[in-house]
Amino acid sequence: MPVLADPATEARSILAGLGLSLPASGLEARTPVDGALIGHVTPATPAEAEAAIARAAAAFRLWRSVPGPKRGELVRLYGEELRREKDPLGRLVTLEAGKTLSEGLGEVQEMIDICDFAAGLSRQLYGLTMTTERPGHRLMETWHPLGPVGVISAFNFPVAVWCWNLSLALVCGDPVLWKPSEKTPLTALAVHAVFERALARFAAEQGEFAVPDISQLLIGGPEIGNLLVEDRRVALVSATGSTRMGRIVAPKLAARFARSLLELGGNNALIVTPSADLDLALKAIAFAAMGTAGQRCTSLRRLLVHESLKDEVVARLKPIWASASVGDPRDPGTLVGPLIDAAAGEGMANALEAARAAGGIVHGGEAVDSAGIYRRPALVEMPAHGGPMLYETFAPVLYVVGYSTLEEAIELNNSVGAGLSSAIFTTDLRESERFVSAAGSDCGIVNVNIGTSGAEIGGAFGGEKETGGGREAGSDSWRAYMRRATNTINYSNEIPLAQGVRFDI
Ligand code: NAD
Asked: Where is the active site (predicted)?
């Protein structure tokens, strides 16, 4: 095992390298690598949050009129700055969120990818032109900036989710107010400091288009997030986190008719059919269930295996689970890093207890450190689809059940509250087409011969039902950040009414 630096010292040195120093008191920032205190950060007061919202509202009045491709140029510069700082930022993600180094770096790569995407998009915010029933008329739609966007993000993708929102919102003409997870404030400070560099370059190179306060950071807990949710000046709130949080936030946004983009919990299933390429399936299952220590919204939680294969699949998964290396996420040999905190460890232990009570046979799952943060991934053979399988436990627990027909497997896939991600392993065209059809999986992500997690930014990302219905990142997700105006333009000398209505004066 390589000799690894003290995590808190390494994190402080990365922050110093990025020009950031931490205050002596404030909100504690810890690393799950060994639970140590890295330092403190200064939380925003309600008055500061209120002032930030007012500044964002003022920034919107200017930024909305900056040409789209100029807005895209700022995002392109941010992508350049991120490329330069990818290594330290990726390491900091690992130190603060506990994901393996390759995943920490991958998260920053995802930020770079969405910046590239958004820069191109800034020249493509197009509307349609429709034929009209009236002579001498033109019918079309235009897309306009929406207003300040509040972004509330979760600990497990501490920076990429913000960047998905930031890069699209900025090219769409909207300033952003970001309330990151209180569990990952340091990565937020770091990526925001790098954004400010891009903004300074933009001001130097494109001075006439530079607008202050188009991206602001509000460190704090739910109470600061709630200020964004309740403020009428925040036109869209994009909230990523648990379904529990969504249940609180969604009605408040609905009450003031605000736009919402909700990216909530998942409870994702993968179906293994008799025709599946098992070697492929096992690799995909291992990453989807154990990767990021099961702390992805798209992590695989429910494995539905055809009953003819179930014993073989379980027998082949058991040694993979038993040999997966659990440890310091900076060690290149580690596959499973720590959970975010002791409460997450307790949540995992409780779910396994509930599984045993429901007749499940549990393999693994035990804590390997005294704090209970490092845990062996668990594989649980369930007698039937039920008990703790029905809800999301944010930890590396994979429940396995058998099924007899594809119809039954699809029913089980769709039978939980969440509707985020799903997958099927099959080499039978009829089975795969059935799964992706209207009568198939009811999730926002429906994959064939690939796991449930690890999406690219090019597609729209999000899920249905208790996952909240929001879509972020690629495809036409940008529309959530803009308002649509339908324009009818009369260039004739008459004033005909639609549907043949007459009103002769
Ligand atoms: P969480 O719900 O505890 O917190 C998420 C964010 O919401 C934090 O910033 C928190 O401060 C804020 N928040 C909590 N209550 C709030 C309230 N009442 N008002 C305003 N803000 C509030 O989630 P977490 O533990 O950080 O993250 C894990 C959860 O996030 C899992 O359920 C996971 O599936 C989900 N998640 C979903 C996606 C997705 O795209 N669907 C992506 C990542 C994580």
From this structure: 263
